[in-house]
UniProtKB/TrEMBL annotation:
Coiled coil region boundaries: none
Domain named 3-hydroxyacyl-CoA dehydrogenase C-terminal: residues: 188-284
Name of the protein in its database record: 3-hydroxyacyl-CoA dehydrogenase family protein
InterPro entries: 3-OHacyl-CoA_DH (IPR022694), 3-OHacyl-CoA_DH_NAD-bd (IPR006176), 3HC_DH_C (IPR006108), 6-PGluconate_DH-like_C_sf (IPR008927), 6PGD_dom2 (IPR013328), NAD(P)-bd_dom_sf (IPR036291)
Positions bearing the site annotation: Important for catalytic activity: H141
Pathway stated in the Swiss-Prot or TrEMBL entry: Lipid metabolism; butanoate metabolism
PANTHER family named in the record: 3-HYDROXYACYL-COA DEHYDROGENASE FAMILY PROTEIN, 3-HYDROXYBUTYRYL-COA DEHYDROGENASE
GO MF terms, alphabetically ordered: 3-hydroxybutyryl-CoA dehydrogenase activity; NAD+ binding
Domain 3-hydroxyacyl-CoA dehydrogenase NAD binding residues, every copy: 8-183
GO biological process, one term: fatty acid beta-oxidation
Organism: Microbacterium stercoris
Binding residues for NAD(+): G12, A13, G14, A15, M16, G17, D35, E93, K98, S120, N144, K276
Length: 286
Protein backbone atom coordinates (compact mmCIF):
# COMPACT_ATOMS: atom_id res chain seq x y z
CA UNK A 1 0.00 0.00 0.00
CA UNK A 2 1.22 3.51 -0.73
CA UNK A 3 0.43 6.92 0.75
CA UNK A 4 -1.06 9.34 -1.80
CA UNK A 5 1.66 11.97 -2.42
CA UNK A 6 0.87 15.34 -3.98
CA UNK A 7 2.94 17.83 -2.01
CA UNK A 8 6.63 17.42 -1.36
CA UNK A 9 9.02 19.48 0.74
CA UNK A 10 12.75 19.26 0.01
CA UNK A 11 14.87 20.65 2.86
CA UNK A 12 18.16 22.14 1.63
CA UNK A 13 18.57 24.03 -1.66
CA UNK A 14 22.24 23.17 -2.17
CA UNK A 15 23.78 21.13 -4.97
CA UNK A 16 21.42 18.20 -4.36
CA UNK A 17 18.23 19.69 -2.91
CA UNK A 18 17.62 22.17 -5.74
CA UNK A 19 17.85 19.46 -8.41
CA UNK A 20 15.83 16.94 -6.38
CA UNK A 21 13.13 19.60 -6.10
CA UNK A 22 13.22 20.09 -9.87
CA UNK A 23 12.99 16.32 -10.44
CA UNK A 24 9.81 16.17 -8.32
CA UNK A 25 8.25 19.22 -9.99
CA UNK A 26 8.98 17.81 -13.44
CA UNK A 27 7.20 14.60 -12.38
CA UNK A 28 4.08 16.62 -11.51
CA UNK A 29 4.42 17.05 -7.74
CA UNK A 30 3.75 20.40 -6.02
CA UNK A 31 7.18 20.93 -4.55
CA UNK A 32 8.68 23.39 -2.08
CA UNK A 33 12.44 23.67 -1.70
CA UNK A 34 13.50 25.28 1.58
CA UNK A 35 16.85 26.43 2.88
CA UNK A 36 18.04 28.63 5.75
CA UNK A 37 19.86 31.02 3.42
CA UNK A 38 17.86 33.39 1.19
CA UNK A 39 20.95 33.84 -1.04
CA UNK A 40 21.14 30.09 -1.64
CA UNK A 41 17.37 29.93 -2.28
CA UNK A 42 17.66 32.73 -4.89
CA UNK A 43 20.68 31.15 -6.58
CA UNK A 44 18.96 27.75 -6.61
CA UNK A 45 15.76 29.15 -8.17
CA UNK A 46 17.75 30.94 -10.91
CA UNK A 47 19.86 27.88 -11.67
CA UNK A 48 16.85 25.57 -11.89
CA UNK A 49 14.99 28.00 -14.19
CA UNK A 50 17.96 27.91 -16.56
CA UNK A 51 18.33 24.13 -16.34
CA UNK A 52 14.65 23.45 -17.03
CA UNK A 53 14.71 25.90 -19.96
CA UNK A 54 17.72 24.03 -21.39
CA UNK A 55 15.96 20.67 -20.99
CA UNK A 56 12.97 22.14 -22.84
CA UNK A 57 15.24 23.35 -25.68
CA UNK A 58 16.57 19.80 -26.00
CA UNK A 59 12.99 18.49 -26.18
CA UNK A 60 13.27 16.68 -22.83
CA UNK A 61 10.58 18.77 -21.08
CA UNK A 62 7.23 19.48 -22.74
CA UNK A 63 5.92 22.27 -20.53
CA UNK A 64 8.70 24.06 -18.62
CA UNK A 65 6.33 26.75 -17.33
CA UNK A 66 4.04 24.16 -15.75
CA UNK A 67 7.01 22.51 -13.99
CA UNK A 68 8.31 25.88 -12.74
CA UNK A 69 4.84 26.85 -11.50
CA UNK A 70 4.81 23.71 -9.33
CA UNK A 71 8.06 24.82 -7.62
CA UNK A 72 8.12 27.13 -4.58
CA UNK A 73 11.38 28.39 -3.09
CA UNK A 74 11.59 29.58 0.52
CA UNK A 75 13.93 30.37 3.39
CA UNK A 76 11.19 29.42 5.87
CA UNK A 77 9.94 25.88 5.32
CA UNK A 78 7.67 25.51 8.38
CA UNK A 79 4.36 25.95 6.47
CA UNK A 80 5.45 23.57 3.73
CA UNK A 81 6.35 20.97 6.38
CA UNK A 82 2.80 21.20 7.78
CA UNK A 83 1.30 20.51 4.34
CA UNK A 84 3.74 17.97 2.91
CA UNK A 85 2.85 14.36 2.16
CA UNK A 86 6.55 13.60 1.68
CA UNK A 87 9.57 15.44 3.15
CA UNK A 88 13.01 14.78 1.66
CA UNK A 89 15.89 16.22 3.67
CA UNK A 90 18.96 17.21 1.61
CA UNK A 91 20.70 19.55 4.06
CA UNK A 92 24.36 19.78 5.03
CA UNK A 93 25.94 16.42 5.88
CA UNK A 94 26.08 16.82 9.69
CA UNK A 95 24.39 14.31 11.97
CA UNK A 96 23.41 16.80 14.70
CA UNK A 97 21.95 19.23 12.15
CA UNK A 98 19.92 16.48 10.49
CA UNK A 99 18.62 15.30 13.87
CA UNK A 100 17.50 18.88 14.65
CA UNK A 101 15.82 19.19 11.25
CA UNK A 102 13.94 15.92 11.67
CA UNK A 103 12.87 16.85 15.21
CA UNK A 104 11.41 20.08 13.80
CA UNK A 105 9.77 18.27 10.88
CA UNK A 106 8.29 15.78 13.32
CA UNK A 107 6.73 18.64 15.34
CA UNK A 108 5.22 20.24 12.23
CA UNK A 109 4.37 17.49 9.77
CA UNK A 110 1.23 15.39 9.72
CA UNK A 111 1.79 12.08 11.54
CA UNK A 112 1.17 10.20 8.29
CA UNK A 113 3.72 12.18 6.24
CA UNK A 114 6.57 10.09 4.81
CA UNK A 115 10.13 11.24 5.56
CA UNK A 116 13.30 10.57 3.59
CA UNK A 117 16.90 11.62 3.97
CA UNK A 118 19.17 12.05 0.95
CA UNK A 119 22.28 11.58 3.13
CA UNK A 120 25.12 9.63 1.51
CA UNK A 121 26.69 8.49 4.76
CA UNK A 122 24.15 8.80 7.59
CA UNK A 123 21.78 5.82 7.80
CA UNK A 124 18.25 6.83 8.77
CA UNK A 125 18.40 4.65 11.91
CA UNK A 126 20.69 7.35 13.40
CA UNK A 127 17.89 9.89 12.88
CA UNK A 128 14.94 7.71 13.85
CA UNK A 129 14.84 8.58 17.56
CA UNK A 130 14.60 12.30 16.77
CA UNK A 131 11.09 11.82 15.31
CA UNK A 132 7.72 10.64 16.63
CA UNK A 133 7.04 8.05 13.95
CA UNK A 134 10.29 6.32 12.93
CA UNK A 135 8.44 3.75 10.81
CA UNK A 136 7.83 6.54 8.28
CA UNK A 137 11.54 7.29 7.69
CA UNK A 138 14.15 5.84 5.32
CA UNK A 139 17.11 6.92 3.18
CA UNK A 140 16.11 8.13 -0.28
CA UNK A 141 19.48 8.62 -1.95
CA UNK A 142 19.71 10.51 -5.24
CA UNK A 143 22.94 10.87 -7.21
CA UNK A 144 24.68 14.01 -8.40
CA UNK A 145 23.48 15.66 -10.61
CA UNK A 146 19.99 14.53 -9.62
CA UNK A 147 18.38 15.87 -12.82
CA UNK A 148 20.64 13.62 -14.87
CA UNK A 149 21.46 10.51 -12.85
CA UNK A 150 18.90 7.75 -13.39
CA UNK A 151 19.16 5.94 -10.05
CA UNK A 152 17.67 6.34 -6.55
CA UNK A 153 18.78 4.07 -3.73
CA UNK A 154 16.11 3.39 -1.12
CA UNK A 155 17.39 2.11 2.19
CA UNK A 156 14.94 1.07 4.91
CA UNK A 157 16.08 1.05 8.53
CA UNK A 158 14.90 -1.79 10.81
CA UNK A 159 11.81 0.23 11.81
CA UNK A 160 10.77 1.43 8.33
CA UNK A 161 7.24 0.27 7.42
CA UNK A 162 6.36 -1.46 4.16
CA UNK A 163 3.97 1.43 3.42
CA UNK A 164 6.87 3.89 3.64
CA UNK A 165 9.03 1.76 1.33
CA UNK A 166 6.18 1.32 -1.18
CA UNK A 167 5.50 5.07 -1.18
CA UNK A 168 9.09 6.22 -1.79
CA UNK A 169 9.51 3.52 -4.45
CA UNK A 170 6.33 4.69 -6.17
CA UNK A 171 7.30 8.39 -6.04
CA UNK A 172 10.83 7.64 -7.31
CA UNK A 173 9.45 5.58 -10.19
CA UNK A 174 7.06 8.38 -11.13
CA UNK A 175 10.10 10.68 -11.51
CA UNK A 176 11.43 8.22 -14.10
CA UNK A 177 14.30 7.00 -11.91
CA UNK A 178 15.37 3.38 -11.58
CA UNK A 179 15.00 2.26 -7.95
CA UNK A 180 17.66 0.22 -6.19
CA UNK A 181 16.01 -1.10 -3.01
CA UNK A 182 18.37 -2.33 -0.31
CA UNK A 183 17.16 -5.10 2.00
CA UNK A 184 18.95 -3.52 4.96
CA UNK A 185 21.22 -0.63 5.96
CA UNK A 186 24.94 -0.76 5.22
CA UNK A 187 27.37 2.20 5.24
CA UNK A 188 27.81 3.65 1.76
CA UNK A 189 24.77 1.72 0.46
CA UNK A 190 25.49 0.00 -2.91
CA UNK A 191 26.77 2.42 -5.54
CA UNK A 192 29.22 4.30 -3.31
CA UNK A 193 30.58 1.00 -1.89
CA UNK A 194 31.24 -0.27 -5.42
CA UNK A 195 32.86 3.03 -6.37
CA UNK A 196 34.88 3.08 -3.14
CA UNK A 197 36.25 -0.41 -3.85
CA UNK A 198 37.54 0.76 -7.25
CA UNK A 199 39.03 3.97 -5.83
CA UNK A 200 40.74 2.11 -2.96
CA UNK A 201 42.25 -0.48 -5.30
CA UNK A 202 43.45 2.29 -7.63
CA UNK A 203 45.21 4.01 -4.70
CA UNK A 204 46.74 0.69 -3.55
CA UNK A 205 48.08 0.01 -7.07
CA UNK A 206 49.58 3.48 -7.23
CA UNK A 207 51.03 3.34 -3.68
CA UNK A 208 52.74 0.03 -4.46
CA UNK A 209 54.24 1.59 -7.61
CA UNK A 210 52.54 -0.80 -10.03
CA UNK A 211 51.59 1.94 -12.51
CA UNK A 212 51.16 5.70 -12.92
CA UNK A 213 47.84 7.35 -12.16
CA UNK A 214 47.49 8.09 -15.88
CA UNK A 215 47.81 4.39 -16.77
CA UNK A 216 45.46 3.25 -13.99
CA UNK A 217 42.89 5.81 -15.18
CA UNK A 218 43.38 4.65 -18.79
CA UNK A 219 42.71 1.01 -17.79
CA UNK A 220 39.46 1.97 -16.07
CA UNK A 221 38.30 4.06 -19.04
CA UNK A 222 39.48 1.99 -21.97
CA UNK A 223 39.34 -1.58 -20.64
CA UNK A 224 36.35 -1.29 -18.30
CA UNK A 225 34.38 1.43 -20.11
CA UNK A 226 34.20 3.75 -17.09
CA UNK A 227 33.45 7.33 -18.19
CA UNK A 228 36.51 8.52 -16.24
CA UNK A 229 39.39 6.96 -14.34
CA UNK A 230 39.37 6.65 -10.53
CA UNK A 231 41.92 9.43 -9.99
CA UNK A 232 40.05 11.74 -12.35
CA UNK A 233 36.85 10.91 -10.47
CA UNK A 234 38.41 11.63 -7.06
CA UNK A 235 39.65 15.00 -8.35
CA UNK A 236 36.15 15.78 -9.66
CA UNK A 237 34.30 14.78 -6.47
CA UNK A 238 36.96 16.36 -4.21
CA UNK A 239 39.62 14.43 -2.30
CA UNK A 240 38.34 15.97 0.95
CA UNK A 241 34.88 14.52 0.23
CA UNK A 242 36.37 11.07 -0.47
CA UNK A 243 38.36 11.29 2.78
CA UNK A 244 35.23 12.40 4.68
CA UNK A 245 33.29 9.37 3.38
CA UNK A 246 36.06 7.04 4.64
CA UNK A 247 36.10 8.74 8.08
CA UNK A 248 32.28 8.56 8.29
CA UNK A 249 32.35 4.82 7.56
CA UNK A 250 35.12 4.28 10.15
CA UNK A 251 33.06 6.18 12.76
CA UNK A 252 29.98 4.08 11.98
CA UNK A 253 31.71 0.69 11.90
CA UNK A 254 34.98 1.04 13.84
CA UNK A 255 36.55 -0.93 10.97
CA UNK A 256 40.23 0.19 10.66
CA UNK A 257 40.29 -0.73 6.96
CA UNK A 258 37.62 1.94 6.32
CA UNK A 259 40.10 4.72 7.20
CA UNK A 260 41.42 6.80 4.28
CA UNK A 261 44.80 5.78 2.82
CA UNK A 262 47.90 7.75 3.96
CA UNK A 263 48.32 8.97 0.36
CA UNK A 264 44.81 10.44 0.31
CA UNK A 265 45.27 12.03 3.74
CA UNK A 266 48.57 13.60 2.63
CA UNK A 267 46.91 15.03 -0.47
CA UNK A 268 44.09 16.58 1.59
CA UNK A 269 46.58 17.98 4.16
CA UNK A 270 48.47 19.68 1.30
CA UNK A 271 45.21 21.27 0.05
CA UNK A 272 45.32 19.20 -3.14
CA UNK A 273 41.55 18.73 -3.05
CA UNK A 274 41.05 18.20 -6.78
CA UNK A 275 39.69 20.33 -9.62
CA UNK A 276 38.13 22.88 -7.26
CA UNK A 277 41.61 23.60 -5.77
CA UNK A 278 43.43 23.57 -9.12
CA UNK A 279 45.45 20.55 -7.94
CA UNK A 280 44.72 17.06 -6.74
CA UNK A 281 46.05 13.81 -8.16
CA UNK A 282 46.46 15.88 -11.34
CA UNK A 283 47.56 19.50 -11.81
CA UNK A 284 44.88 21.76 -13.33
CA UNK A 285 46.79 25.04 -13.05
CA UNK A 286 47.58 25.38 -16.77
N1 LIG B 1 26.90 16.41 -3.35
C1 LIG B 1 26.75 15.14 -3.70
O1 LIG B 1 27.41 14.63 -4.64
C2 LIG B 1 25.73 14.28 -3.00
C3 LIG B 1 25.25 13.13 -3.63
C4 LIG B 1 24.25 12.37 -2.98
C5 LIG B 1 23.81 12.74 -1.72
N2 LIG B 1 24.32 13.86 -1.11
C6 LIG B 1 23.80 14.23 0.20
O2 LIG B 1 22.87 15.30 0.02
C7 LIG B 1 22.90 16.16 1.17
C8 LIG B 1 23.17 17.59 0.71
O3 LIG B 1 24.39 17.61 0.03
P1 LIG B 1 24.75 18.84 -0.92
O4 LIG B 1 25.93 18.40 -1.71
O5 LIG B 1 23.54 19.33 -1.60
O6 LIG B 1 25.22 19.92 0.17
P2 LIG B 1 25.26 21.50 0.02
O7 LIG B 1 26.22 21.96 1.04
O8 LIG B 1 25.43 21.90 -1.41
O9 LIG B 1 23.77 21.95 0.46
C9 LIG B 1 23.28 21.80 1.74
C10 LIG B 1 22.28 22.91 1.98
O10 LIG B 1 21.61 22.68 3.22
C11 LIG B 1 21.28 23.94 3.74
N3 LIG B 1 20.86 23.84 5.13
C12 LIG B 1 21.63 23.74 6.24
N4 LIG B 1 20.83 23.74 7.34
C13 LIG B 1 19.55 23.80 6.90
C14 LIG B 1 18.26 23.84 7.54
N5 LIG B 1 18.15 23.80 8.87
N6 LIG B 1 17.16 23.93 6.76
C15 LIG B 1 17.26 24.00 5.42
N7 LIG B 1 18.44 23.97 4.77
C16 LIG B 1 19.56 23.87 5.50
C17 LIG B 1 22.55 24.75 3.51
O11 LIG B 1 22.29 26.15 3.60
C18 LIG B 1 22.92 24.30 2.10
O12 LIG B 1 22.37 25.14 1.10
C19 LIG B 1 23.95 15.60 2.11
O13 LIG B 1 23.32 14.80 3.07
C20 LIG B 1 24.82 14.72 1.19
O14 LIG B 1 25.39 13.61 1.86
C21 LIG B 1 25.26 14.64 -1.72
Amino acid sequence: MTVEVQRILVIGAGAMGRQIGAVFALAGYDTTVGDVSQDIVDAARDEIRTRIARLAEKGQVDDPQAALSRLTWTSDWDDAAREADLVVEAATERLELKRQIFARVSELARPDAILGTNSSTIPSSLLADSIRNPERLCNMHFFNPALVMACVEIVPNPQTSQETIDTVVSVSQRTGKEVVLLKREIPGFIANRLMQAVLDEAMRLHASDVATIEDIDAAARLALGHPMGPFQLMDLVGNDVISFIHHAEFELTGDESAKPSPELEALVAEGRLGRKAGRGWYDYSS
